[in-house]
Amino acid sequence: MYKNFRVTVVIPCLNEEQGIQKILLELPAFVDEVIVVDNGSTDRTATIANEMGAHVITELHRGYGRAYKSGFSRATGDIIVTLDGDHSYPVDALSYLLEAFIHCRVGFLSASRLPVLSDSAMSSKHKAGNRILSFVLSLLFFRWVHDSQSGMWVFRRDVLNKMNLTSDGMAFSEEIKIEAIKNRDIGFREIFISYSQRLGEKKLRPWRDGFQNLMFLFRKRLGI
Ligand SMILES: Nc1nc2c(ncn2[C@@H]2O[C@H](COP(=O)(O)OP(=O)(O)O)[C@@H](O)[C@H]2O)c(=O)[nH]1
Ligand SMILES: [Mg+2]
Question: If you count Cβ atoms within 10 Å of the first and of the last residue's Cβ in the chain, which end, N or C, has fewer?
């Protein structure tokens, strides 16, 4: 519990045995529920998560967005916090984010990694891609967003009922922010966090995912 709110952490994982172990060791004691969504990892991700007390869900249908939708449908907390299973997002910032979330009185708080403080955390190509996608999202949806691709969010679980989440892939990250922005009564804010180099192998395919995410923004704007 954090200040009378039950907290669920949801982590999508595809072969993240190194990262998930470190995250689960570092998670603060006030977290009530940890859901690891495994998309058929071939390493020890699921075994490790299970042994360390996480609730492991197996989602047979691949995809970052699909994994999140599955995880959210099982979450029971009042507040949901998300992060990648690669230990790139700051686990030790959880209380800072929850405090800011409660203080800002919004329904959805997104953690922005930009500007990136550590050079090794994000390649120049990745940074440029993020900036382009964030700029296009901001233009199309009339709201300045620094980091449209961030995967660390804090939100009230009940705001999910107001969202229309269609993406099963990497575009889920921008879509959930768009839905939070579009539904004015949810309330959207961004807050800065530090970001570090991931453990294990990258799952993002920059050109393919970048292009798909860009097209997704236009389709979402046009409602198709
Ligand atoms: N469950 C699941 N997780 C995925 C899938 N693709 C990526 N992930 C996870 O989603 C997170 C984001 O992927 P990552 O490679 O770190 O992308 P980046 O942070 O945008 O560079 C990581 O925790 C991955 O393990 C997938 O198909 N299914
Ligand atoms: Mg990552």
Answer: C
Ligand 1, atom 27, residue with closest C-alpha: 63
CB 83 within 8 A of CB 151: yes
pLDDT per residue as tens digits for the range 109-166 = 999 999 898 889 999 999 999 999 999 999 999 999 999 999 999 999 999 999 999 9
Superfamily of domain 7-222: Spore Coat Polysaccharide Biosynthesis Protein SpsA; Chain A (3.90.550.10)
Other Cβ atoms less than 10 A from the Cβ of 34: the count is 21
| Cα gap 176→163, rounded to integer Å | 8
Cis ω for the linkage preceding 90 (within 30 of 0): no
- pTM metric for this prediction: 0.96
Q: Is 85 in the pocket of ligand 1 (CB under 6 A)?
A: yes
Atom of ligand 1 nearest to the CA of 59: 1
Q: 192: which strand partners?
A: 112
Give the position, in ligand 1's atom list, of the atom nearest the Cα of 86. Answer: 23
Domain ranges of the chain: 7-222
Ligand 1: distance of its center to the CA of 61 in Å?
Answer: 14
**CA–CA distance, 128 with 186 (Å, rounded to integer):** 29
Amino acid identity for residue 181 in this structure = I
**Is the Cβ atom of 203 under 6 angstroms away from ligand 1?**
yes
